[in-house]
Amino acid sequence: MRTPHALALLAAAGCLALTACNPQAADTGAGTSPAPGATAPASTAPAGSAPAGSAPVPPKAGRTTAAVPDFVGQVLQDAQDGAQAAGFYLLSSHDALGKNRNQVLDRNWKVCTQTPRGGTTTGTDTKIDFGTVKNDESCP
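Structure (tokenized):
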């Protein structure tokens, strides 16, 4: 008689553990976890970082800076990996065609635009936003 209760308790504990591993689990946007290889939601931008589409924030004293690599034309997953290798961990992406599609499988998307642009130097706490389309689509 206690087995169904024990199974229910184990299932609840498993769900709780999975949610604890991914604090964005309740978020409806896919690919928004700031974990390696994933993108960060816009709401996690630190104070003073540039919103998508704006110029990079000038470095503050004591702030780590780096040159932003050019990721345009790369597969989204490779761009994210490259950004992290360059020291940028606050990443986001969006559908460049304006269809509001989520980038669920990052390897199925390519980068058409990025903000800030490649070649600029900015703080490594600046968010990099990738404008993407599916690999078989043309950039706008």
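The helical segments are 3-21, 76-85. Strands lie at 65-67, 91-95, 109-115, 121-123, 128-134.
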